[in-house]
Design brief:
Layout lengths: L1 H30 L2 H8 L3 E3 L2 E2 H36 L5
Antiparallel strand pairs: 1-2
């Protein structure tokens, strides 16, 4: 009874993380494209007191932290799934 639940949770986590990984890739592609680099160098104002350059720096920092945290998170998920499969009798 435990093994099907482990497999279901594992598949659901994998599908959700695929969408999250695609969002990370899209963020990096847009930020480091030619237009993204030009926007990140612009000193034009987006809102009151906030420039495109500040937004570009923020997105770059967020992208880097997402990649690092995603790698660490996935190591934890993989370890938890392996432990759960072992507890289920190795049927996964």
């Amino acid at each position: 009874m435990f093994a099907p639940l482990v497999c279901l949770v594992g598949c659901g986590t994998w599908c959700g993380n695929c969408a999250y990984f695609a969002a990370i890739i899209t963020t990096g592609v847009i930020r480091y494209s030619t237009d993204g680099k030009m926007c990140a160098r612009s000193e034009a104002f987006v809102a009151e007191g906030v420039t495109f350059s500040e937004h570009g720096d923020a997105i770059q920092g967020l992208f880097i932290s997402q990649v690092v945290l995603f790698c660490g998170y996935y190591c934890c998920v993989y370890t938890a799934l392996q432990v759960a499969c072992n507890l289920a009798g190795g049927e996964c």
